[in-house]
């Protein structure tokens, strides 16, 4: 059982992190933590410049890249073209296209055309119910259409994968996803790996990302390298660079009259992976964060709101024994609780109201 140790007030937040890591027998040289204010003044730090594996904290980097690169009104688009009794689906890389969206657009096609569809052909870059493997997409489509029993779909409809986009004639309907900002929020809440990986690919992949980090942050491969947007493998960075990314992301959001709460999760308030994280705060909405976890790594990065200033933080814990995973996760939370405890009387809630209908804000347009 994990027991939160009691510290004397004389101990700094830096030494408290060191003590927590020592209690869990973690190798000191592999742990990293940093906290600073908006001006870059260090509040606490521990190995802040060493390479760390960010796990799903990687997604914050992809959000930053996406907000800086894509139009503010960006939506993924998927084109549905009905030609006689064949429905062609030209994928647009929408990583959050799900059953609700499919049934809605098929119903609208039925209302407009009233034709029995005997064959469905889907193209590359079409994802369905968080599947990106064409074989799995085909099976998922078959199962969903069988369950939904739509009147304009032949119960024995033939579903085929195409290696090309359909360029022929027909009646077209365009599905436009929820706005990018809502997709990013959903991705953060549930740490949806396929969404982050699809965005990473759409934005240009590893080479383009490296160039972006060099251009904006002056960071080279000695400091950061990403092979995935999800953080499932192949990524490294530093704690101090992570805080720079969060600040840059915040700055770009402000330009669009948005805030970090529009993208990052509010623990214990938003649904998803951060809902059951326990932070002992009188002001429950005073923290926004992104957590990360893969074998041997627990990570957490975000912002604490106080009356005096914002505190940007990153915690990157590495452990050898996989059986220690849960205890290390609790250690990360315990450390953030110590930070919150120190600023207890100054904590301030973010101005935030949860939106539980993020992906429902889509559009269907007949072309």
Description of the molecule:
The protein has 367 residues and is an alpha+beta fold. A six-stranded mixed sheet has the order 6-5-4-3-7-11, covered by helices on one side. The chain is elongated, with a radius of gyration of 23 Å. Helix 1 runs antiparallel to helix 9, helix 2 runs antiparallel to helix 5 and helix 2 packs parallel to helix 8. The protein is 33% helix and 20% strand. 41% of the residues are buried. It starts with 12 loop residues before the first helix and ends with a strand. Strand 4, helix 3 and strand 5 form a beta-alpha-beta unit. The chain folds into two domains: 225 residues, Beta-lactamase (3-Layer(aba) Sandwich), CATH 3.40.710; 101 residues, D-Ala-D-Ala carboxypeptidase C, peptidase S13 (D-tyrosyl-trna(Tyr) Deacylase, Chain: A).
List key phrases describing it.
single chain; D-tyrosyl-trna(Tyr) Deacylase, Chain: A; alpha+beta; five-stranded antiparallel beta sheet; 9 helices; disordered N terminus
Structural class: alpha+beta
Q: Which spans of ≥5 residues are poorly predicted at pLDDT below 50?
A: 1-10
> How far do the termini sit from each other?
60 Å
* The CATH C-level class name of the largest domain: Alpha Beta
Overall number of domains: 2
**What's the rounded overall pLDDT mean?**
93
Share of helix among residues?
Answer: 25-40%
Please state how the strands of the largest beta sheet are arranged side by side.
6-5-4-3-7-11
Biggest sheet architecture: 6 strands, mixed
Q: Any guess at the CATH architecture of the largest domain?
A: 3-Layer(aba) Sandwich
Shape: elongated
Portion of residues in beta strands equals 15-25%
């Amino acid at each position: 059982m994990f027991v939160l140790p009691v510290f004397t007030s004389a101990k700094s937040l830096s030494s408290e992190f060191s003590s927590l890591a020592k209690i869990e027998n973690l190798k000191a040289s592999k742990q990293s933590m940093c906290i600073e204010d908006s001006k870059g003044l260090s509040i606490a730090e521990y190995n802040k410049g060493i390479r760390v594996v960010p796990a799903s904290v990687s997604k914050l980097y992809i959000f930053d890249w996406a907000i800086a690169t894509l139009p503010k009104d960006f939506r993924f688009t998927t084109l549905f073209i009905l030609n006689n009794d064949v429905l062609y689906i030209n994928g647009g890389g929408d990583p959050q296209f799900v059953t609700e969206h499919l049934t809605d657009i098929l119903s609208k096609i039925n209302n407009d055309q009233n034709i029995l569809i005997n064959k469905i052909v889907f193209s590359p870059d079409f994802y369905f119910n968080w599947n990106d493997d064409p074989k799995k997409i085909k099976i998922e489509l078959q199962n969903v259409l069988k369950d939904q029993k739509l009147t304009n779909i032949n119960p024995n409809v033939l579903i085929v994968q195409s290696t090309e986009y359909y360029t022929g004639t027909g009646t077209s309907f365009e599905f436009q996803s929820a706005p990018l900002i809502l997709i990013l929020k959903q991705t953060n809440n549930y740490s949806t790996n396929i969404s982050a990986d699809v965005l990473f690919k759409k934005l240009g992949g590893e080479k383009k990302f490296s160039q972006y980090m060099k251009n904006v942050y002056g960071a080279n491969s000695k400091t950061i390298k990403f092979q995935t947007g999800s953080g499932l493998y192949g990524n490294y960075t530093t704690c101090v660079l992570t805080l720079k990314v969060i600040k840059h992301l915040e700055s770009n959001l402000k330009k669009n009259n948005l805030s970090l709460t529009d993208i990052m999760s509010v623990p214990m308030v938003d649904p998803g992976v951060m809902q059951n994280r326990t932070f002992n705060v009188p002001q429950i909405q005073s923290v926004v964060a992104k957590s990360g976890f893969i074998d041997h790594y627990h990570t957490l990065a975000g912002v604490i709101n106080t009356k005096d200033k914002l505190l940007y933080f990153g915690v990157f814990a590495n452990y050898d024994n996989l059986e220690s995973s849960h205890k290390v996760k609790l250690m990360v939370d315990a450390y953030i609780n110590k930070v919150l405890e120190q600023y207890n009387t100054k904590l301030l809630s973010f101005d935030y109201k949860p939106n539980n209908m993020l992906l429902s804000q889509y559009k269907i347009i007949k072309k």
